[in-house]
Amino acid sequence: MELLSTPHSIEINNITCDSFRISWAMDVGDLDRVTHYFIDLNKKENKNSNKFKHRDVPTKLVAKAVALPMTVRGHWFLSPRTEYSVAVQTAVKQSDGEYLVSGWSETVEFCTGDYAKEHLAQLQEKAELIAGRMLRFSVFYRNHTKEYFQHVRMNCGNVMKPYLKDNSGSHGSPTSGMLHGIFFSCTTEFNTGQPPQDSPYGRYRFQVPAQRLFGPNTNLYFADFYCMYTAYHYVILVLAPKGSPGDHFCRERLPQLDISCNKFLTCSVEDGELIYRHAQDVILEIIYTEPVDLSLGVLGEISGHQLMSLSTADAKKDPSCKTCNISVGR
Q: Domain Phytanoyl-CoA hydroxylase-interacting protein-like C-terminal spans what residues (predicted)?
């Protein structure tokens, strides 16, 4: 049988967190003969080629020949925000079950995308299932070291400035390494109604009345749901003043929540007064997208311990947890 031409001119497009479309060129005479495509897909960090030594053994991914471009989809082998290399080989399955194969194409590299809004909506639905009842609160607070707050006062004009979010949480979160903000907490102890006295981030706490950061002129977005190989689950929310750069960023990428009616964090008017509530059974991490002046609140030292084991700085999500994972790239 006549040899097959080597595929060339690979093109990759329509890339998502767990799929991509691929096409290539081959001789016209091969179009009616080719029965299968072999696709060799490798994470970029592994530069060692995974070509099989025996040409009659299929590669990692085998597909029956279809019209190009074709979609490659699979959360079990594609992860978000990950660089891959891909090469293709065409084949004709012969009557004896053996394959006549072409040479390998050139290798092309690409990077998968972030979670889309529909993926985050799935995470949101899973988080809502365990959020629990809503508890009242009155302040947002930020724990840090004494040195941090001294730096803010002496070098930043008494203003805490937004910084780039780290890579903690879901690997596919569109906020990681992209959104600037300041982390706050609002969790209270159910028996006291007050913020806990322990913290993983430092013994100094800045407290600001909730209405200073959250109100009718603020938009609220769901950003992530994850755990760190523990029973605790975290929900990341974003508070962005309407029309701000952070608001524009989130509107394009994150599901927006009704500030007065959702399962995580609410601001509602009751008897002419703004009332604030947070979910009891998840730990909320609030990203506020604008600078915050220390004069808006009070700074003090907490009496509890610094529980470093609860820190979520650059924390990696447990990919095996059935509570907080969805069936797309982790």
A: 111-330
